[in-house]
Design brief:
By secondary structure, the protein is mainly α. Helices cover 72% and strands 5% of the residues. The chain is built from 18 helices and 4 strands. The strands form 2 sheets. A two-stranded antiparallel sheet has the order 1-4. α5 crosses α7 and α5 packs across α11.
């Protein structure tokens, strides 16, 4: 009698997992649906020659959709860029700030504005890509675009924009009906899908003698160490002690227990590297507007490759900025201090109210700095490996951080569903035993 409700709750979790897997499978199938009018083989040869620059980096984030020039080439990058812009505007315009504090209704309005902005950005980026491809030629001098002109540009812009909207819809459905954050899972699925090919290329280099077996073993051990390092920092937290006062009610004494307020060392998760990578894709689009032979495009390809110093300096600066920015948006020390004060709790040695808020904010700024340094160190690791060891894939760095971080967040959500199921099962069992006792008493 008691097992059936538990099985129902377990089947709900299974349905969420199956739904998430099916949606990600649809995404991976869409990666291989080509956009008409492009010689995919010639484009793939060009992309493979540019694995070390910004184009190769964009191809990794798109899950290989760029080299296939599929309908999902833009991936969810326009949506992420639109989200960044809306969050920045929320801090500038009071109307948007009030809207963000209106609860579910305000969140839906901001999401609607984000979708509209996503369509505009996707159209601009898709049109820029179509214009750039018209002037590109393959290794043998063959034209990549078979029949160019405005018809090709408009068709490509509409097709790639529709692909981004479709992925945005898949991400939202996964968030609502599946497990984990849909947009982050889509990016992770693309990164993970590229890893077997990257590992295959590395083993080919080992077999050809370009990388020694000893170096490859060291890199494997280093990869395991980096994963353990990421897991440690993603789980680590700075605990602020919190004390509840004792209260005497009648003849009984309540309260007096000690607890803590955990501040994660990386409170913003994988958002900073995703946002920073998305913004660094913009110079690639900007350079394509001026043509492949323009000074702007040459500057982008020469100085903004993933192994260049300028790129990594900008990357680290953006990561630090988004670590503080996203933490400021999602965590308000004043609200936390007020909630503690209303509950009668206090930090030992600190006066409740404004002093507690300043104390929490001071600790939070230090914690975020540590987290920003940790994320930056992980994300610039590929540049060191590619510069000194000529590793042909983005070992560690943004890809590994996103993959491990999203996996940890997804596991936490699965644990939350299991804990909720077990708690409801226990409560149901207690309710059933209480009803049985009442029946016996009658």
């Amino acid at each position: 009698m008691i097992g059936n409700p538990d099985q129902g709750k377990l089947s709900e979790l299974q349905k969420r997992l199956v739904f998430t897997a099916l949606m990600l499978a649809v995404y991976r199938i869409g990666v291989y649906v080509p956009t008409p009018g492009v010689d995919a083989a010639a484009l793939q040869a060009i992309i493979q020659r540019q694995q070390g620059n910004l184009i190769g980096f964009f191809n990794m984030f798109s899950g290989g959709a760029l080299e296939q020039f599929s309908i999902l080439t833009l991936n969810v990058m326009p949506y992420i860029t639109a989200s960044i812009i809306l969050q920045l505007l929320t801090m500038v315009f009071p109307t948007l700030e009030r809207m963000s504090k209106e609860g579910e209704v305000g969140r839906r309005k901001i999401n609607q504005y984000t979708r509209y902005l996503t369509v505009g950005l996707a159209l601009v980026q898709a049109f820029a890509i179509a214009t750039t491809l018209e002037s590109q030629t393959g290794p043998a001098g063959e034209a990549i675009v078979r029949d160019g002109g405005w018809s090709f540009r408009i068709m490509t812009a509409v097709t790639l924009t529709a692909g981004t909207i479709f992925l945005m819809w898949i991400g939202e459905k996964i968030t609502e009906n599946g497990i984990g954050n849909g947009i982050s899972l889509i990016i992770t699925a693309g990164i993970v899908a590229r890893m077997p090919a990257a590992l295959g290329n590395t083993f080919e280099l080992v077999r050809a003698g370009e990388i020694s077996l000893f170096v490859m073993i060291l890199l494997g051990l280093a990869m395991l160490a980096v994963v353990a390092f990421i897991v440690f920092f993603e789980r680590a937290a700075r605990r602020i002690p919190v004390q509840y006062p004792r209260r005497v009610v009648g003849r009984k004494m309540y309260g007096g227990q000690s607890t803590h307020l955990p501040l994660r060392l990386n409170p913003s998760g994988v958002i900073p590297p995703i946002f920073a990578s998305s913004l660094l894709m913009f110079p690639l689009t900007l350079g394509s507007w001026f043509g492949p032979d323009s000074a702007v495009n040459r500057f982008v390809n020469q100085y903004l490759g993933p192994t260049d110093v300028a790129y990594n300096v900008l990357f680290v600066a953006l990561i630090v900025f988004f670590c503080y920015f996203y933490t400021a948006v999602t965590f308000n020390p004043v609200d936390v201090a007020e909630n503690l004060k209303k509950g009668g709790a206090y930090v030992p040695g600190i006066r409740p109210g404004q002093n507690t808020a300043q104390y929490i904010d001071r600790i939070l700024m230090r914690v975020v700095l540590v987290g920003a340094i940790y994320i930056s160190a992980i994300c610039v690791l590929p540049s060191i490996l590619m510069g000194y060891f000529s590793i042909p894939f983005y070992f560690g760095g943004t890809s590994l951080l996103i993959a491990v971080g999203v996996a940890l967040d997804t596991m936490q959500q699965i644990e939350g569903h299991l804990i909720s199921r077990n708690y409801e099962g226990i409560m149901g069992a207690r309710g059933g035993r209480a009803s049985a006792r009442r029946v016996r008493m009658r």
